[in-house]
User: Fold this.
Amino acid sequence: MNQTPSLQTRSRQTSSITRQSRLFKGILNGLFEKKAEAIVSLDLRKIPESVADFFIVCQATTATQVKAIADGVERSVKEATGEYPYRQEGFQHAKWVLMDYVNVVVHIMQPETRAFYRIEEMWSDAPQMEHKDL
Assistant:
């Protein structure tokens, strides 16, 4: 009997990711540099069902700006940590770009998409923090 190979999954390692870590600050630098709006971080570390330690959610008014912000985050994180995203999705239509850094997931959304999916409400058990400047 042939067994199907197990799906390769990433493991969320026990981490020391905080809002003061180089990864977190690198992401925020990229967001601020490219003028992301309404930046909120959700601390998911105490939620057992979470897939990451933090979600960072922000918005941009156009698809072009969404892509520019994602590029800015990737460049800034690469400079700060040497890391690239584990996975990125959403560049084709750029209504919602997701950048997965394993322990931190960045959601860059257009306002209509953000209002529809309401990530902050879905994860309302997580402490939230607004970010206006470093």
Q: What stands out?
A: Strands lie at 37-43, 54-59, 87-89, 96-100, 104-109, 128-131.
